[in-house]
Amino acid sequence: MNISQDPGWQPLLVDRSAAQDDSGDDDDETASPADKSELHCAIKSLSLKLDDLSTCNDLIAKHGAALQRSLSELDGLKIPYESSEKLKAANERATLFRITSNAMINACRDFLELAEIHSRKWQRALQYEQEQRVHLEETIEQLAKQHNSLERAFRSAPGRAANPTKSFSEGSLLTPKGEDSEEDEDTEYFDAMEDSTSFITVITEAKEDRKAEGGTTGSVDWTSSDNVLDGASLVPKGPPKVKRRVRIPDKPNYSLNLWSIMKNCIGRELSKIPMPVNFNEPLSMLQRLTEDLEYHHLLDKAVHCTSSVEQMCLVAAFSVSSYSTTVHRIAKPFNPMLGETFELDRLDDMGLRSLCEQVSHHPPSAAHYVFSKRGWSLWQEITISSKFRGKYLSIMPLGAIHLEFQASGNHYVWRKSTSTVHNIIVGKLWIDQTGDIEIVNHKTQDRCQLKFLPYSYFSKEVARKVTGVVSDSQGKAHYVLSGSWDEQMECAKIVQSSPSSPGSDGKQKTVYQTLPAKLLWKKYPLPENAENMYYFSELALTLNEHEEGVAPTDSRLRPDQRLMEKGHWDEANTEKQRLEEKQRVSRRRRLEACSRGCGTEEAEKEADVYMPLWFEKRLDPLTGETACMYKGGYWEAKERQDWHMCPNIF
């Protein structure tokens, strides 16, 4: 199988019925059944060449003999002694030439015999490797099926406890999933991390006496400043000033086995695996980044917070909300072309302007800047690293996210967690978010520690659970956060903290007494018929809608993505190949230009360096990393409709 290198994925994520990436510069060759016929053809060609050599040998022998006869006849003539010696020398050279030509023919014949002998050995070895590979694939699939059968048997065993009832303990509000749980018999489960929660919370009444020996007392009630948290998630959606589309063409029902493609790619960087658009959704990675702004109203609300720890609660809820769109979105977004952009100009209804640009191709990296007229700005440069591990796919977004509130000067920085797509081999694909996120306010040194717990059927914890604690610069905890990344987040104000008794494992946890929790964020319901529209949210449905006046590099103008959205997947695959080849040609030209003045390795590095149009590399003083930051000029160019500087990438 011929597997080409593809430097793009960005992704976030893979779809069972489709897949792609947008560019490849290198090719890896692996053995395939066609190798046998190629070997036979090579041997046949060698045989024909050997026949030609034999014919040449016969002719050489014939003419050589005639030459020697002629020389012998000349030797019998009466000629001067000097000429006789020269004829004798010519006769000897002709004899040596004939001997040498015979030796060459014999060596060629020996080479062909050896090639035939070794080719049979190679064929047997190749056949054995192919049989072993097929056997290994069948064994892996059988093990996966047995694993799922054992889980089903365990779940159906008598005496299994039902889902825990709603309680505020072990670090979070446990919300029951009940009978509508998305999990089914094909779901794969993993054990939760050891010591998944480092604290215990107990709800107390507002007026209850909370003084206890060894405890730390706090305020006894929600204060007026906390009222900004009330209904933070319950912002009604008013009618949009611009009518936007509410649906896209239904996803075609194309079947394509993901395992048949991915089984050859275990351990490889996902962005270097060429895949058809069948594994994609009709949005680019730049548009997926922009989707993080769906719950921007949390930041609009945070602008009015007078308390920095209270503001941190809303920032934490916003950081969690960005994962809510991924719970059903197992499809992979299109990897942007180098220089591709995406703008979201929604000052009228959302109060913000957003711009993304693909600033690097090796590795794939996107820069993003958002300005809100409500008093905040956000920027990030995200590089997507992804690896296929056999049964699951890991997606690691690398890079820091910055959020700054202009009025207070509070500057928050955090990084995204790891996304994992499970059941690649067998069963229903599902996605999980795992890892820790630390949000730091670099002005006040307030911190929020969020923990995304990996889902396990054998754990008493609810699925997709998130817990967290908001602390000030002195390390004093003020709020406990709890919820799930696909549904909602709540916060509870801490009124007292104390150490618990050591558990059976000898570990001690902190006990927080809290006031009743308040809802920070709740996910919007999906649009009607979302299951046939790639599970897009209301905002996602509008992102690829055609708009006048955007830059010629905007993702909305990408032809293969547009064809896929319309349901023309065959044409989209053809167009995708054209775009990939165009990008490869562009890179080769840069490489040729760079190689004139420097070595090969240095030239390749130079060829991969792209000068973004709207962003520039700067040293981030907070993280110490070099990142692309917005340098301005895009919206002014849009107002003038002057796009002469934009590259022709589509």
Automatic annotation (TrEMBL):
It is a peripheral membrane protein. Residues 126-153 form a coiled coil. Its main location: membrane. One of its GO terms (cellular component) is perinuclear endoplasmic reticulum. InterPro entries: OSBP_sf, Oxysterol-bd, Oxysterol-bd_CS. GO terms for biological process: lipid transport. Keywords: Coiled coil, Lipid transport, Lipid-binding, Membrane, Phosphoprotein, Transport. It is found in: Membrane. GO terms for molecular function: cholesterol binding. Residues 1-36, 155-184 are annotated as: Disordered. Belongs to the OSBP family. This is Oxysterol-binding protein. The lineage of its organism: Eukaryota, Metazoa, Chordata, Craniata, Vertebrata.
